Each structure stands twice: as C-alpha cells, then as structure tokens.
Amino acid sequence: MLTIEKLKLKIDNNSRLLGLDIGSKRIGISICDDKRTIATPLKTLNFTNLNELIIKLKIIISENNIKALIIGYPLNMDGSLGKSAQSINDKSKAIEKAIDVPVSLWDERLSTVGAFNISSQLDINVTKRTKNIDEKAATFILQGAIDYLNN
Fold first, then answer.
1. How far apart are CA 54 and CA 31, in angstroms?
2. Which of 24, 58, 114, 129 could make an SS bond with 119 (beta carbons 3.0 to 4.6 A apart)?
C-alpha cells in the first residue's frame, strides 16, 4: 500500500483515479477525469464477497483506464485505528495483490456526513440524499485525495 505522497510520485498528472468507499454491504465508487480535476459518482455495488468485488474492479479499471485506487480509510475521530479501519486495511491489501494499479488509503472521517451535507445544501430531500450516499461518499473521498495530489 502506498502513502498518498508515494502515489503522487508514481502516477503522472494525466491519470484517472478510482475512489472507493467500502462498506459492509455496499461499495461506493467514484471516478475522476484524466486531468484529476473533479471526482464524480460512478456507481454503487452490493458487496457479497471480496473475490467478486475484485473481478468487478478489474473490469472498471480496464474500461476506464484507471491508474490508481484511492480507498477510504475509516479512522476513528481521534485518528486511531478501530475495527472498521482494520477491516478496510485487510480488504485493501487483498485488492492491491489482485490488481495491477497502485492502491492508497485516504482518511475518510466524515466523508458520508460531508456527502450528505453537500446534498442538503443543494436542497435535495432526505430520501434522495440517502440514495446513492455510498458513491457520493466515494466522490467526497476521491475529491479530497485529488485536491491533495494537485497541490
């Protein structure tokens, strides 16, 4: 697993990245443009098992010319590692072994809250805000990472 600083050295400026918000039931996926300017929601997958997720990720990576994955890392609010962070760490290592692009973890504290709040500022009702929240959270994660990479 690469730190975001090492990932920055490994990819060029025109690299499409994929953002993942891995939950126990659903995986939110986002993608950025090849100039790494803006992240957009792509899709939400239902999580059944890791092997099936890896197969689907390989297809998405191939179809979209993805150069790296950014996976949300659910640290506790105090920055410590909890049960969720360890689970993501384990899944991320398995994904990294199975695919041919670099993987980096990105602090996702408050990403779901952030995605929910942004949609509330757009005056979207609560039912619509919770729909696709996973891919919106993935977008929030990826946007934070690409903003960091671009600075």
1. 17
2. 129
- The alpha carbon torsion through 141, 30, 32, 69 (nearest 10 deg) reads 70
Residue type, 3: T
Under 8 Å between Cβ of 71 and 50: no
Q: Model pTM?
A: 0.85
- Structural domain harbouring 65: 4-150
* 53: CATH: 3.30.420.140
**Packing angle, helices 50-64 and 83-98, rounded to 10:** 60
User: Would you write out the chain's pLDDT as a tens digit for each of its 151 residues?
Assistant: 999 999 999 998 889 999 999 999 999 999 999 999 999 999 999 999 999 999 999 999 999 999 999 999 998 888 788 898 999 999 999 999 999 999 999 998 755 444 444 445 545 455 545 557 889 999 999 999 999 999 8
Beta strand extents in the chain (DSSP E only): 16-22, 26-32, 39-46, 66-73, 103-107
Domain count of the fold of the chain: 1
